[in-house]
Model the fold of this input.
Amino acid sequence: MIASLQRLADRVLGRGEATGTIPPFDGPLKPNQLLETAPIVLSLDDGEDLATDGRHVYVAAGERVLRLDPDQPREIARPGGTITALSCLPGGALAVAIGGREVRIVGGAHDGKRWTSVAGHPLTSVNALAPTADGRGLLLTDGSREHDCARWCHDLMSGGKSGRAAQLDLDGDGAREIARGLSYAFGICAAGATVVVSESWAHRVIACDDGQHGQPLVESLPVYPSRITPAAGGGFWVTAFTARTQLVEFVLREPAYRRRMMREIEPRFWIAPKLSSGRTFLEPMQGAHIKTMGILKPWAPPRSYGLVIRLDADGLAAYSLHSRADGTHHGVVAAVECEGHLYVLAKGCGKILRLSVDAIAREFSL
Amino acid sequence: MNERLLSLRYRWWPDHVVGEILSKRWTETAIPAIVLVIVAAAFSAAIPGFLSAASLADTARQACEIGFCVFGMSLVIIVGGIDLSIGSMFALTDFCALFCLDVLNWPVSAVIPTTLLAGALLGAVNGILVGYFRLRAFITTLITLIVYRAAYDLVIFRHSNQIAAAFPDIPSWNFIGGGTLLGVPSIVLVYAVVAIFGHVFLTRLRPGWHVTAIGGSRRSAFNSGIPVRRTIAQCYVASGILTATGALFFAARLGTVGGDIGVGLEVTVLTAAILGGISLGGGKGSVAKAVIGTLIVLLITNGLTTLSAPGGLNRMVLASILLIAAMIDIRWVKNRTRIISKVYVSPTYHAMPPIPATDPDSGSPFAQNDRLRNVAEIGVGLIEAPEDIILDHEDNLYAGSRHGDIIRFFPPDYERMEVYAHIGGQPLGMAFDRERTLYVCVGGMGLYRITRNRAVEKATDETNRSLRSVNDDSRLRLADDLDIADDGRVFFSEATVRYEMHEWPVDGLEARGNGRIICYDPNTETTKTVLHGLKFPNGVCIASDRQSILFAETWGCTVKRYWFAGAKAGRVETVLDNLPGYPDNINLASDGNYWLALVGMRCPALDLAWRMPGFRRRMAKRLPVDEWLFPNINTGCVVKFDEEGRILESLWDLGGVNHPMITSMREHRGHLYLGGILNNRIGRYRLADADPNFVQYDVRWGAAQ
Done:
């Protein structure tokens, strides 16, 4: 009772939860330009996800699955439909999500096996796939029950809380939910007995034990986390497809404005996080975005951002790679480590970047 | 329907006035004054005849006696101290007066100076200890309170009977105690004289300013050469004299030296001072506040006494009021500026039709192109913030810079430059008059001119004070652009009267008509506001009939025409409406049409926010300025239009970096020169089919000799 009154007062006065303050990029999240200056391996307009089997990097690009061979990307599969998530399974098979509504196995012993619903509810926006620790199952996140993958922004703006994480049984027909009611689940990775899931709109990564409620592993991030992949030295790579701004947090607390904005304005001109920005003057502009003497400050509130966070085995952030507000390598949705290199998919600018993990580690003197 | 109500509410309810009233200093006195009225009303309702003439006369005598003490206390508080010994001093000087009169049988003319001298000496003890020896005021005066009281008890023990037995019947003494002049009690007259002098002293005289300065910041006052110790000591002496004055009237009125005289007086006096709004922290206070505080306290004590409240309750009430007033005082002093800054910004409803298309293939006259891609650059890195540029007949290029200079670039290549004149404020719009004097609007300073021999002169920095405005709007805050009529009158825009130049985003957030068009007549040296309530009026340009000006309203996204002479004099008509961007300066084109700079472009998110004032108000309160939704001024363009309101062409730098922002453009001999207030360069664009001999000065004033 008192708590709810307090919350009401906070909302009226703009205090407490209603302030919309954002944790600073500090400590392990201290900004740098590593992602912005990283060399580009491949430019592609429709890149969606990356996966690796330890020898090659695979790219989901539109309806195709490409393999990044040293000289040339090579198409290796075309499962029919837009691919929204991709994962390599032990034994050389690929798991793909098609249109967010179907998960299919391509190649290997289970070739052709498919799922369209879990726990009685159809899949709507499957955006990440990963093998279980024992390799006999497939983990997935289904971002939202109401909106498909492309309409993630609608889900954020309508306060989406219908994401779920699930596990599919490769050998049998079993399929069960690991967690439900998530604020946009986007990214999943097995970590021993537990499963690590990104909960984007809650700005955190949670660890779900079997049948347990998710415990936050990393929380209060200044960004919206997305896919998670294992790092070779133990721990994880977590990408963040865009950063939070106080203005967006404020708009999220202004239902009247948000409703009218969603009704009257084209989505690309909304006050909302973006995978890329600065393409047209019809996008909303904030005070710090004014170019003075021809310069945009890199610390301006980012309408779009590029970030990869390295978590160590305990789930603590160790360091991070950035492309800041004045950069272009934004909208990072996937990062995989393969043969000593980190491959990063910046969807906002349609580029795949490659960084040497050793060089990064030296940079942060680890 | 909802939106209609919203627009009516913001049209007729003046939100912005609240902040403007609160930011006035007199509101600090207004609040105790309101309390006074409420207290008076409450007691006169509860007690019949509470405010009758007889009751008032009696109240007035008491009020003034205490009032003198409150003056003394206020002065000491303003200088940064406190005087707790006032009650004891009051008793001692009361005794002094009666002792001189009744026991020593001195004449009244000797009693008065002696009593005042006694007060001065008692105060001097405090003054020397606190001022020169720098003891803590609280402890020092607490000790003198006890010492003086002890002294008083000793002397009345010996002399009270003598004084009580005496019944002096001296007319002048009686006049002091109970006489009236034209129906006004004698004490009130003296009190009024002292109050008026006190007001003049504190607000107009150097020593008064010194007192306030010391109270505000003792160290700064010392550093600026004010004799801090002496001034403080003198304030305590003055407090003693003022207390003695009150005691003198008290002695004349009652003639007693009872043991309880002046007991607890310091609490009453302190309550009055704090309640009136004299800040305990020092440096803030006025005579009016002291008077109001006195009246409130007296009305309350008298009212409670009349209601036969026990004496203890009386004290309790006063003490509680003191506590509350002190609390409010501290909170108010701490939060005043914060409260004002929260209330001052008051967005209003501003709706515009949907944004016209600007896509490259939209076929609209605003369709984007990259014609400005190949603009030559002048003075890259040499000049900062050239809001406006102008060229003379000899092709010299003049531009303002944010360092407060007018920079002159020399033809033909414009690589050499010099500081043509230093003004000191950011130069904005510029225009030559017939005598080739350069008139310049300077942000924050007003309208200036630079004569042909480079003398900088102020033309005007104020206009007539309008009666409808709470803020003093006579000073020019943001003179923006100008043009000059045939008779030499200068018409210039002032973008906003509520904010300073660097606060333009706040004005954009409000989107209210805060700006105006002002006319300066150099022939009569007069300045007059001709139009007000404009939404950030910006560019000004004389129209072809020489009887009207075209002016741009930046937040209104319109260009309007105002006739200052001729048959349509005084009328305003819209020329361009619903522009896709924010119009800035307007200048003449060689083909008789006009160039208009769009400094930034509209975006749907801000257009929607402009229709939701509550959203913007909360945004202003909860987000730092850097995070606010802004008008996009990172992209702009130049358009050409005619007086019928047709857009003829537009020039863009699509996706370019050279001239993302354009605040002004000037055509000269087949080139268009571009300026931008956040740019570090001037652009020069060759116009393919323009008159290669076009010089604005020649067209405007006839070819130069």
